[in-house]
Amino acid sequence: MGRTGHDDTAPALTEDPRPRTGWPAPGLAWLLLALAAVTAYRALALRWAGLDLYVDEAQYWTWSRRLDWGFYSKPPVIAALIRLTTSACGDGPACVKSGALLVYPLASLLIWAIARRLFDARIAFWSALTFFLLPGVSFSSQIISTDVPFFLFWCAALYAYLRALDGDRWGWWLAAGAAAGLGLLTKYTMLIFALSVLLHLALTPRLRPQLRNPRLYAAMATALGVFAPNLLWNARHGWPTVHHTVDISHLDSDAGLHWNHLGEFLASQLAVMGPLLFCAWLWLTAWRPRQWWADERYRLLACFALPFLALISLQALAGRADANWGAMTYAAATIFAVALLLQRGRRRLLAAAILVNAALMPLLYHFDAATRALQVELSARTDPFKRVRGWAELGRQAQAVRAQFPGTLYLADSRDILAELMYYVHPHPLDAVLWNPQRVMDNDYALSTRMDDQRGRDFLYVTGRAQLDAATIDSFQSVEELPPLHVTIHRDYALDYKVFLLHNFGGYR
């Protein structure tokens, strides 16, 4: 089979076939230096920020303490990544988040490898650097989320797929399948990768015979084999992750077309890819598409970008979609935009897009310092980070209460407070329990904790409810209200939780 990558026979993309890529072509060493410098800055910014773990991050950390093949809302890779980093440097917030700092440079190197194989060293360098400076990547580098390893496996699968098409070797086909399987163990939207492969092969006449290639289906079988343990876990537990995915999409509860949700999602992509770069990519894609479609390299990149964004956009239209749900679009889209801008002589536009994205990074990382310097008083409405403040102090208060009542277990009625208590109270109360008398399976702690074997135990019940209902009170021998937990964040925003000492659990009433 012929090579799909960069060569001198590729069709011209512009009226002028001569390349107009006047930018320098720094080597891989320069890219490694740039990635290291930006990563060091991000690590320092993470340490200086002093923000607490978001509830999802705290929850992922609790998962990492009891590794399994699945959890209520996510497959297992995010928990395994946190277990890996915290085993190396401890359970501090920076270590919990450090997977993002480590993985994004690796994903950027894969972007470099993909672009280098398709184009040349110049486009490879600027594609990798541009990707690393995307606002979505800058933001995600400060948190630990499923998008972090997902980018790595998506890019690894794409690179292996390119190598498989080049030589049709079993090793690269199986490597692509293994990477795709790991992607499925990270996020179920990895299924779109298979759709992109089939679409790419079907739309490229020279490659259509690959649809009959047994190696392609061996790769798919490999992906399924890697993913199988999570499928078995879900089957044993009643498919909770599938139900959760449907729930958060609102497909079954909010029927109809939601044009406002679609508009909000598309507008949010300006912040994910960067305003100039996103608009440039859309313009390059829509303006004279026959020019770039004639080149197999751009056709491939479009097949691994446009379907992802289109499907998530349909999801937003039919229900809802968060801004980050379309993030995998920008692995291929970044290479597409950088290559076309350079080859069409739009260097100033690319430079402006990179500079805008680079400028957004310190604004994001030093938000608190900027507001203090400008003497801006934050409020619940103006503080985008209010949900990651105050949890450490709340944990200290809860820890002080428990010190007065040794032997009690923490009890909570929401996964938010339960996850934060498990993380911020020391020693970590991993035996904390979810209060769930209706046995509603709507979060992981409903699956992993139970009250059935806790009869006779005493609890510290931490709740956002103002009062306990009669059924809760009747489930215990006695109930005593303790001083509440209170942490002021802003004048109009605080963390407030009631605390009740519950004696001798007798079973749900």
Task: Note down, in words, how this protein is organized.
There is one protein chain. This protein has about 500 residues and is α/β, with parallel strands linked by helices. It folds into two domains: about 30-365, no CATH class; about 385-505. The chain contains 23 helices and five strands. The protein has a five-stranded mixed beta sheet with strand order 2-1-3-5-4. Helix 13 crosses helix 17 (about 330-345).
Short recap of the structure:
The chain has 509 residues and is of the alpha/beta class. It has helices at 28-49, 55-64, 77-89, 93-118, 121-132, 135-140, 147-167, 170-184, 191-203, 214-236, 240-249, 259-273, 275-286, 289-293, 296-303, 306-318, 329-343, 347-365, 367-373, 391-404, 415-424, 444-448, 470-474; strands spanning 409-412, 433-434, 459-463, 476-490, 493-505. Residues 1-21 have low confidence and may be disordered.
